[in-house]
Amino acid sequence: MDHEIDSVIKELVNSGDGVLENLKEMSLVYQSSSDWFGNKNGDKQVFLTTMKEWLQSNIGANKYFLLILTDSKNGFGVGGTLRNYKTGESTYIEPYWFDPVQIPSDKIVDSTGAGDAFRAGLIYSLIYKNQALNNSLQFASGGLNCLSYGGNSGTPTFKEILELINSKQ
To answer: Can you tell which superkingdom this protein's organism belongs to (predicted)?
Structure first.
């Protein structure tokens, strides 16, 4: 999270815990920001090409990664290979751009904790609620956490998140 992915994976591999061997069996969700990939507010196609190249690299290839690279209010790229533990089948998701529900910029007061809220919402929706990937991304990307000061002083409720999602439709 919020680090350059190759260094994170190399750190895990060098830990001596057998992580490299396990990466072929585990599904990892890795989320970072455009700050770490040098393309903040940049061309979306360049962003997606960078993701695709990484997923095909020696570190990314043949492993189960869901790679999410956020670019603040501009949205985020998502792609990778996921493994269904029930069926054992894997699915490659070509990197694509996801546009989140927009919060009016005059209402945003502080982005502290926005990434943490995104990850929490994604995990909650994917794991706890067993929702499809796009539904989980929509649930996670609302930005409602940015409507108050501090990382958790205005954590949105489930109802508030659903109201925001429904207002987009």
So the answer is: Eukaryota
